[in-house]
Amino acid sequence: MKTVAIADAVMSLDNVLAIAAVAKDNRSMLVMGLLISITLIVAGAGLIMKLLEKFPVLIWAGAALLGWLAGEMFDNDPILAQAIGADLAHRLEIPMAIVGAVAVVGSAWLSRRRRAEVAA
Question: What pTM, to 2 d.p., does this model score?
Fold first, then answer.
């Protein structure tokens, strides 16, 4: 619950800055944008929490997706492309994405298992 509260606060700050940039000097647009944005964030967080409680596999799927995206990001890394060549770096996109997904899910699984052993 603490993580969700922190994420909500960070996302809200990000939205405040974006809405302020769009509204410029229009106060009514700023207030309306903030009301809509904060309502959607709070409602969305509640909906996501209910979905995660009902379908815990979504937590693992989300972790795998984050790992996949992190692994894919290596494809665009200029240092890697310079070191091994852009063509090889591009060909490694899918394997690195798989490694990223497995690394994130594997580390989360190991962490969960260790916590269960300590608690027992």
Answer: 0.62
